[in-house]
Inverse folding.
């Protein structure tokens, strides 16, 4: 087992540490699935093991969900091609359902405990939600925040079935659809974690729980168990009808994952858990096979990661260390650009026609910083440091020494030409001139430049601090070197959370 | 093919469909039973000649479940050879039951049958039977499920009816119903409901508010604004299907929508030969019936389409119909139908409708069919068309012709 450490203590309680090698966050890969099955078999077959506690070896949390990179590669491996569409789907189902089948096989039962996704880093100071798990021959693969929407397909591992049975259909549907984080206290109140303990004491507390609850059994495995709020109960009907309406309104029917999650719940609540898990696995495959899911995984995950690592950057050009950038035009766009790059630790000159306008542009950052400080998102010191990096001015000579200029003045060719000339008078030979134009052709704007090779379109989207997308537009004469430099700048300034 | 004749039509008065309604203390079985007994007693009927009883029930669950018509046949003391079957086509269940009875007679499968319906909305509330349309995401979303009230508001908005237009129609319904009662136009078919002692419990439609005015309706709050705009926001669902509606005007309220009431009805339908054999006098002939499916999200525009479908099949022109009757589920439904077919309002719902008297869902279709039989005779007219809008986007209609 490469993904789990496994230690049995003198009381016969196994400690399983989930720690996928070489990753900052655990994900459910094919290898993890195989390991989990081995784990289950080990616990099942070893009478000395009275119970098991599962924890994470990562500070980032317990598990992010399905491994999207791997999911994206699905079918790429050389396998015998299935004979028919139906056969292909059957095979996908078998693969997806293996884990559930293993966990549910024989007299193996889910225990009362389950794994809450660990607190996010920013909550590190708070109490840690914990996760007592299972007793002898008990094991749970549950994840309390089942990965759902936004490119992550429906968790095929039972989340849409166990969570509603634990905390009620309405609460569960909201949590799964909105991927809502819950504080440990809220989670305990809702009933999907057993206890909240001091950081560092989780394993100890979980082991104590396992010892104290040797006969723990999941509610849905207790004989006579019935879902209380299925779709044909008064409460369940409200949740079902309302859920359908809200999802259809919010998604305009463009997100099959959302609809399929609701179908998992609607259909799953009407049958026993084993049938429900099969239904969920089928919807998981159905969702993962949609062009929408494939497209979202590709665009929002695979390509996003690639871009973050400088995908499309011309090769063989050394990294451009962007330390100082002048932003010309302190309107809405300029002010936003100044904020994001200052946040990334870049010295920022914010120029405008009057000192008053330039100051106004800086005030935009001041407002965001004040809000973040008041909400405890950043410290006062960090906020002050960020603001200190922005110099509002009318003096173009401050451009001296800048690695890059972003021009964000009105969409007027003459005005832009004038600004380009004024800026280039102070701009170093090898520095980049970027225009934030959204409509004007870059080649045309570059005509005003003495160094069109260094001229490029760097188009941010509004509101800059929230929109991750930046469009780079090459002019006819823009060199690959300039392109590489602009990419380095964008990646640098996109790193919104400066360390 | 045989002709299907209407020999008699009866209905109970409509009681308020609430716990304080007069009929709340009488079972659904009793309502259905008393209708069957009235048909038997008024016609001195040898019940062994009745082949089957078709009754519409919207919510066949609890006491209304388990094939109420057959149980009512037994309870009414009909011959045990009389079968029974429960019919559900949402709001048109009662008319559908009559259409089935007529079709069976025409086909020769039955010589004498009863169509009708029964609904105690105070005892078995709407929605009791569940259903997958609104709850199952696989169909709710792709068909843009929207509840009827919001759909009715969407019809008003899309086809340009203001709150005042709807309220004026509601006042007219109240006035016409009051006038009809005053003149005894329903007298022929009303069967008072008796209590456990056999004493009259209700002999009039108790839901009516003849004193209604535009001003009094003006004070009512819209009924479907909340579920349309806020929780869970169905406006946003139906607007995906009808993007041309920029904002839905929530114009329906308790006063211009149909009332929730209790009641039952029955129509005796048979061949000419069977009527002659039993010494029954035919009152009207059922020229034909039809049903159609229409766009389900806006749901309630079926009457227009089923009217066209049936009239075409029967080879009838607008001038051939003297009386037009459309169940007043919501005021906008009637106004849209009148607009689409360019009808003369003087010939439409001449004795008022469900806005004034209420809509006992499973029974209404059979009730308004009976009302038209009476009115054709009273007003000395030839033909009437009866239709209802229906859940999930349907329409059902029937055309009858008076027999001299």
């Amino acid at each position: 087992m490469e993904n789990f450490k496994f230690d049995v203590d003198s009381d016969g309680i196994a400690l399983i540490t989930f720690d996928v090698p070489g990753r900052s966050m655990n994900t459910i890969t094919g290898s993890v699935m195989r390991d989990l099955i081995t784990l289950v078999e080990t616990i099942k077959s070893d009478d000395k093991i009275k119970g098991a506690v599962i924890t994470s070896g990562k500070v980032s949390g317990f598990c992010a969900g399905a491994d999207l990179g791997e999911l994206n590669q699905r079918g790429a491996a050389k396998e015998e091609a299935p004979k028919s569409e139906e056969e292909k789907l059957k095979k996908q189902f078998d693969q997806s359902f293996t884990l559930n089948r293993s966990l549910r096989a024989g007299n193996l039962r889910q225990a009362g405990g389950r794994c809450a996704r660990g607190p996010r880093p920013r909550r590190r100071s708070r109490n840690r939600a914990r996760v007592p798990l299972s007793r002898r021959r008990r094991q749970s693969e549950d994840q309390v925040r089942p990965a759902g929407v936004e490119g992550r397909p429906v968790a095929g591992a039972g989340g849409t079935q166990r969570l509603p049975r634990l905390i009620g259909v309405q609460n569960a549907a909201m949590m799964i659809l909105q991927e809502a984080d819950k504080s440990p206290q809220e989670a305990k109140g809702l009933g999907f974690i057993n206890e909240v303990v001091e950081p560092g004491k989780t394993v100890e507390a979980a082991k104590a729980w396992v010892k104290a609850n040797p006969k723990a059994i999941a509610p849905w495995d207790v004989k006579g168990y019935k879902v209380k709020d299925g779709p044909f109960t008064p409460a369940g009907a409200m949740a079902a009808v309302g859920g359908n309406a809200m999802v259809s309104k919010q998604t305009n029917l463009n997100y099959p994952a959302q609809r399929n999650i609701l179908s998992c719940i609607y259909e799953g609540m009407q049958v026993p858990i084993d049938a429900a898990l099969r239904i969920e696995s089928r919807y998981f495959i159905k969702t993962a096979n949609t062009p929408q899911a494939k497209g979202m995984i590709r665009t929002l995950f695979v390509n996003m990661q690639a871009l973050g690592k400088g995908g499309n950057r011309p090769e063989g050009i050394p990294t451009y260390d962007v330390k100082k950038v002048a932003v010309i035009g302190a309107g809405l766009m300029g002010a936003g650009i100044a904020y994001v790059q200052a946040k990334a630790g870049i010295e920022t000159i914010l120029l405008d026609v009057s000192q008053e306008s330039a100051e106004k542009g800086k005030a935009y950052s001041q407002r965001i910083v004040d809000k973040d400080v008041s909400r405890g998102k950043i410290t006062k010191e960090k906020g002050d440091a960020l603001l200190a990096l922005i110099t509002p001015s009318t003096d173009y000579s401050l451009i001296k020494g800048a690695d890059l200029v972003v021009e964000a003045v009105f969409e007027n060719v003459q005005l832009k030409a004038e600004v380009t000339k004024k800026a280039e008078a102070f701009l170093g030979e090898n520095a980049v001139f970027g225009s934030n134009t959204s409509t004007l052709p870059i080649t045309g704007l570059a005509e005003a430049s003495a160094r069109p090779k260094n001229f490029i379109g760097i188009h941010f989207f509004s509101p800059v601090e929230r929109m991750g997308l930046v469009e780079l537009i090459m002019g006819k004469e823009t060199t690959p070197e300039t392109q590489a430099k602009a990419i380095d700048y964008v990646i640098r300034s996109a790193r919104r959370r400066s360390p | 093919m045989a002709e299907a004749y209407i020999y008699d039509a009866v209905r109970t008065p409509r009681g308020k469909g609430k716990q304080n309604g007069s009929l709340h203390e009488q079972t659904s079985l009793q309502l259905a039973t008393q209708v069957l007994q009235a048909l038997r007693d008024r016609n001195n009927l040898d019940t062994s000649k009745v082949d089957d009883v078709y009754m519409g029930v919207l919510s066949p669950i609890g006491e209304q479940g388990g094939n109420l018509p057959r149980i009512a046949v037994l309870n009414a003391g009909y011959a045990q050879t009389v079968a029974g079957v429960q019919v559900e086509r949402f709001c048109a269940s009662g008319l559908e039951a009559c259409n089935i009875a007529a079709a069976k007679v025409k086909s020769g499968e039955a010589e004498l049958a009863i169509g009708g319906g029964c609904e105690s909305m105070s005892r078995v509330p709407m929605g009791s039977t569940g259903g997958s349309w609104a709850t199952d995401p696989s169909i709710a979303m792709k068909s843009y499920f929207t509840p009827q009230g919001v759909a009715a508001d969407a019809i008003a908005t899309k086809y340009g009816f203001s709150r005042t237009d709807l309220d004026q129609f509601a006042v007219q319904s109240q006035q016409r119903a009051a006038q009809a009662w005053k003149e005894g136009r329903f007298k022929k078919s009303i069967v008072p409901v008796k209590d456990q002692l056999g004493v009259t419990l209700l002999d009039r439609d108790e839901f009516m508010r003849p004193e209604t005015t535009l001003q009094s309706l003006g004070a009512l709050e819209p009924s479907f604004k909340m579920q349309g705009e806020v929780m869970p926001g169905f406006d946003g669902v139906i607007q995906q299907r009808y993007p041309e509606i920029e904002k839905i005007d929530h114009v329906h309220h308790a006063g211009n929508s149909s009332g929730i009431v209790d009641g039952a009805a029955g129509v005796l339908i048979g061949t000419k030969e069977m009527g002659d054999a039993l010494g029954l006098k035919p009152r009207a002939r059922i020229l034909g019936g039809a049903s159609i499916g229409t766009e389900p999200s806006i749901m309630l525009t079926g009457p227009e389409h089923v009217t066209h479908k049936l009239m075409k099949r029967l080879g009838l022109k607008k001038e051939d119909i003297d009386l037009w009757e459309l169940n007043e589920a919501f005021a906008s439904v009637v106004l849209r139908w009148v607009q689409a077919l360019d009808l003369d309002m003087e010939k439409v719902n001449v004795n008022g409708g469900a806005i004034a008297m209420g809509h006992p869902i499973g029974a209404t279709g059979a009730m308004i069919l009976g009302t038209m039989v009476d009115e054709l005779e009273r007003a000395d007219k030839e033909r009437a068309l009866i239709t209802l809008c229906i859940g999930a986007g349907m329409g059902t209609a029937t055309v009858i012709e008076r027999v001299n």
Notes: Chain A is about 45% helix and 10% strand.
